[in-house]
Amino acid sequence: MTIPHTISVDVTGDQSTIELPGLRWARLIIDDGDNRVYLFEPRGDLAAEFDAALAYLLAEPAFVRDKALGYNARRLTCAYGQEGLACRYSGVTKRAQPWPIALAGIVVDVARLTGAEYNFCLANLYPDHSATLGWHADDERDLEPGASIAIVSLGSPRLLGLQRVADGHTQSVLLSHGSVLVMAGRTQEHYKHCVCKGNKGDGPRVSLTLRQVRG
Hints:
Layout: E1 17-19, E2 25-32, E3 35-41, H1 47-58, E4 64-65, E5 76-81, E6 86-89, E7 92-95, H2 101-114, E8 120-126, E9 133-136, E10 149-155, E11 158-164, E12 170-175, E13 180-185, H3 187-190, E14 191-195, E15 205-211
Antiparallel strand pairs: 1-2, 2-3, 3-13, 4-5, 5-8, 6-7, 8-15, 9-14, 10-13, 10-15, 11-12, 11-14
Helix pairs in contact: 1-2
């Protein structure tokens, strides 16, 4: 299933907040030339959809630990998307399972919101506060160059770190349940990002990273 390009969202210029249908507002996190990162906070009337998706994913048996990342890797992953697609990273190949009904509404909503097409989703399960993901860029060769990547956060809140490669400047943004972070333009070339450790006692978190993979 390829989600159609339906809405164009302009986040250029000096705007720091953009009014949009569906979610309450978009806040620019990075507006640095061709590098743009912006965050959508969810409206309360979409909470049930996000809650249902989280419940589905926490019961998903397809989540596995990526052996290539080592025994100590706490993050678990699985993939959904268009039939026949796969994405390779860090010596791991993830082949897409069919889009589940529980996620279809979210994928369509995010595509309409961001004006982008997504044909692949890498889902990441962080079982507890100690599961993290180190500094990296989503710059795999299987991805369409310059295509936006959207991160849908479900469950316990986490800080996402953003680091500019040129000078090491670092900032962070809190990703709450139902928020959508979009990395657009040439962000993957010029920035790295990471998922920070949570607070002790935090529950599980799932992130849906929506991408455009080459067919």
